[in-house]
Amino acid sequence: QVQLVESGGGLVQTGGSLRLSCAASGRTFSSMAWFRQAPGKDREFVASITWSWGATNYADSVKGRFTISRDNAKNTVYLQMNRLKPEDTAVYYCAAKAAVTGPYKHWGQGTQVTVSS
User: Fold this and answer.
1) Is 73 helix (H, G, I), strand (E, B) or coil?
2) Which residue, among 43, 24, 20, 23, has the nearest Cα to 103 in the 3D structure?
3) Exposed, middle or buried, 55 (CB in 10 Å: 0-12/13-18/19+)?
4) In terms of DSSP bridges, do strands 56-58 and 66-71 run parallel, antiparallel, or are they unpaired?
5) 3-state secondary structure of 30
6) What integer pLDDT is reported at residue 109 of this predicted model?
7) What is the structure's pLDDT at 101?
8) For residue 104, what are the CA distances in angstroms to 3, 18, 47, 65, 114?
9) pLDDT for residue 100
10) Predicted confidence (pLDDT) per residue in 42-97, tens digit
11) What pLDDT band is residue 6 in, cutting at 50, 70 and 90?
C-alpha cells in the first residue's frame, strides 16, 4: 500500500523559512512533486523531482525561493521554502507517480503552511 506522509508545515512570518518533508512507502516512484491549494483556489503545481536523476522543475512563482530535494536512502522528498510570502499560504500536498509520463496518482494528506504579513 502506497503511503505519502507530509510533515513540517506551520505558521511563519513573511520572509521566514520552512522545510516540508514527505516520507514515501509502498513502492518506488519515477517522480515526486509538491502541489499546493490556497482557500478558494485550484490546486497548483509547486515543484517536482525525478527519483533517479534528481532533475527538478519549479513553478515560476517559487523559483529562486524554494528548493526540492530527495534522500533516496530515506525515501523522502523535501521542500525547502525560503523568503516566504503571504501568497504562499496554502495546504501543501506531496504527490508521486510510478510512470514517467501521465498524472500524479498518489497523494499525501496535506500540511498547512501559513505565512503572516
Assistant:
1) helix
2) 43
3) exposed
4) unpaired
5) coil
6) 96
7) 86
8) 13, 24, 12, 24, 25
9) 83
10) 999 999 999 999 999 999 999 999 999 999 899 999 999 999 999 999 999 999 99
11) very high
Instruction: Match 515543484 to its residue by C-alpha cell.
Output: 47
Fill in the amino acid letter for 49: I
Grid cell at residue 74 = 530515506
Three-class secondary structure of residue 43 per DSSP: coil
* Residues 6 or more apart in contact with residue 64 via CB below 8 angstroms: none
The rounded distance, in Å, linking the Cα atoms of 39 and 51 is 30
Torsion, CA 34, CA 108, CA 8, CA 28, rounded to 10 = -70
